[in-house]
Design a protein that fits this description.
Layout (H helix, E strand, L loop, with lengths): L5 E3 L5 H17 L12 E2 L17 E7 L9 E8 L4 E8 L5 E2 L7 E4 L4 E4 L10 E5 L5 E2 L1 E7 L3 E12 L6 E6 L4 E5 L58 H4 L5 H21 L8 E3 L21
Parallel strand pairs: 2-4
Antiparallel strand pairs: 1-15, 3-4, 3-13, 4-5, 5-11, 6-10, 7-8, 7-12, 9-11, 12-13, 12-14
Length: 309
């Protein structure tokens, strides 16, 4: 007769699950796309709108790539650079074609920056008189140019921005429209808060005591006149200065929203991992296989002895 066997079904441990979850979240944070980043900020500075790139740093002033209709993944054929002057509240922009390509200077209506989807902050139709908005082509010959430079008045705040230019090519139209990747991208301008100047405190008046006259012979010393007690001190109501807001990302060592997304993913992974580590492990449930009934051999026929009659 066969015996029965016991088997054990292996259950995933809490530690293995925690490692898998935390690893997945860390990988997701490392591969977080730049498109999930928070609204970018233009670099601080200003430029003279004269069609020269001497006032620009193509590394620190870079803001966004520009592709066909602003579709992500298409070839980058132009780039946008931004600066902002907090004192004058003026935004400066530079658009440059890439790879030796040229912008269509003969289409001034198609070279602009649009804010919040309505109205052109900077446009080739604004001219250039030294007062923003201004516009100038970069190395233009009347038909083609390397790009354009411009400025426009804009107060600090949160906006959406769209930069646009036509790049000349041999297509049927003779051009391809270039827009910032994402078309309308976020723009954050924050110049910070300035604390108010403290007022000059009012000086406390000094009470001068009245001199006591010297006594004469045979006369009593006169009492000094009542002064009404100590003069009250004038209270000074000094307004407490308002401190500028603290950037939480700077405290955490983060310089972009992408770093903030990664930090959130790491913290979430740590929380999930901690919960799984403290979850009691599941018992291994033994599984009993059914007992097979014994196989009995067939009965042998019984032979009876027959006696002759």
């Amino acid at each position: 007769m066969r015996g029965f066997h016991r088997g054990r079904r292996r259950m995933p441990s809490a530690r293995s699950s925690a490692v898998i979850v935390v690893g997945s979240l860390l990988l997701l944070a490392a591969l977080a796309p730049a498109s999930l980043a928070a609204a970018p900020h233009p670099s601080e500075g200003s430029a003279t709108v004269d069609g020269s790139t001497a006032d620009w740093s193509l590394s620190s002033d870079f803001f966004s790539d520009m592709t066909d209709a602003g579709v992500d993944g298409r070839p980058v054929r132009a780039k946008l650079y931004l600066q902002y002057d907090c004192d004058a509240e003026v935004l400066y922009a530079l658009v440059l074609a890439q790879g030796g390509e040229k912008a269509r200077q003969d289409r001034p209506d198609e070279a602009y920056i649009r804010i919040d989807g309505s109205g052109k902050l900077i446009s080739a139709t604004h001219g250039n008189d030294g007062t923003p908005p201004d516009f100038a082509w970069v190395n233009g010959d009347g038909t083609l140019a390397d790009g354009w430079e411009g400025s426009g008045p804009l107060a600090p705040g949160s906006y959406t921005l769209r930069a646009h230019v036509l790049i000349a090519d041999d297509s049927a139209d003779g051009y391809t429209p270039m827009d910032t990747v994402g078309r309308d991208v976020s723009l954050e301008i924050d110049c910070g808060g300035v604390a108010p100047t403290q007022g000059t405190p009012t000086p406390t008046p000094v009470v001068t005591p009245t001199p006591t006259p010297a006594p004469t012979d045979g006369q009593q010393t006169p009492k000094p006149p009542a002064t009404g007690g100590v003069a009250p001190t004038t209270a000074t109501n000094t307004q407490a200065p308002t401190l500028p807001p603290t950037d939480a990302s700077a405290l955490l060592g983060s310089t972009s929203s992408q770093d903030g997304i990664r930090l959130v993913a790491v913290l979430l992974g740590a929380a999930v991992g901690t919960c799984l580590l403290f979850t009691p492990r599941r018992r291994r449930i033994p599984i009993e296989r059914p007992i097979e009934p014994p196989i009995e051999p067939p009965a042998e026929p019984i032979e009876e002895d027959s006696e002759p009659q």
